[in-house]
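Pilot study result, target chain (406 residues):
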Amino acid sequence: MSKPLEGIKVVDLTTFVAAPVTARLLGDLGAEVIKIEHPKGDGWREFGINFNSRFNDDENPVFDIYNSGKKMISVNLKSTEGKEILWKLLDDADVFVTNTRPDALKRLGLAYEDIKERYPRLIYAIVLGYGEEGPDAAKPAFDTTAFWARTGFARDMSPLTDSYIPITSPSGVGDTVTGYNLTAQICAALLGRARSGKGECVKAGLYHTGIFTMGTMEIIAQKPWGREFPRSRMQVEPPGGCYETKDGDWFYLATGQVSVTLPKLFNMINRPDLVDDERYNTREARVKNGVELYKFLADVFKTKTMSEWSVLAKEFDLPLIRMNHFSDVTTDEQAWANGYLEYMTCPNGETVTMPSPPIEMETVGKIETKPAAKIGADTEEVLISLGYTPEEISAMEETGAIYTGK
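Predicted structure:
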């Protein structure tokens, strides 16, 4: 059975996470992905190595997760020969993915307006930071700044305490969400091209995606609702939220539909008399008596262990879940049972537990994450497929137009 994007060729001029995620997912869906790196390589290679002293060129899983399955070529696009290679790659490409800043693309002659007539069927996909207009359009952007900090999350979702500081943004999360956004748009554009015969430009901005992702908070913080952030734990309306257990563990109870959740909860803690208690049976009453209800529940939840509450929650069908550490996830039986994790063997023989890409399609089947190729590893093979001779390839490497990794 053919994968959905078999026969689609993707030229990947990307760095770091958001745009590489996009190209990797397209590859997992069956596309051929050719990634163009500068001779020094994608900066995320170095970033990954800096995460841990054990990481190196032969063991860099945080680079592999976003670049698995790609053909890696190394080309200096500032050279005449390098630019000609790109044109040849685009001659029969279906998708061009990049996160290069618009000003740099214009200098290279690679802005969409520069090439759309030459490649009328091309889907041109770009990750932006703060958009193309406005005073900060040219500002450097990462998910930590554009997705987490500017959207309000990092400052307003940290609990308000006497020692309050904003949340430290997680690495690559906003990038990945933005990559999902761009992947979906590319697939839609490919479908549109099949009908119209015309390519188009699709964009996904870190800031724009972040604003939509935080949409509920952006709405309720406005007048007339005026929800104030940041909030203390006492201001988070119970019964939802996080609670500590007898053994010092923590769980999160999702509120869901309160009219259903709360009676189940009161019965679970053996207090059915509270179901019709006027202090808690309406939202207005719970807001008024929220601190009292929270303190009551917090004391109750400290009377049993995490394991005991998990058993009871299952019995009463309550959305109560232990709050994992990142380190817990890679040993989670539920994740392994569904194939959400997999083992990958690095070139140095070390085995790493990897998150598997979230694609579950019959036509795609099981996706295996493999170590990304080294800088320039596929340069010679790809250039030969474009019609270059070994002599021409050697000459270009001598001038620095390409790098073959040899």
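One observation from the pilot: Residues 173-196 form the longest helix (24 residues). A full batch analysis is planned for the follow-on phase.
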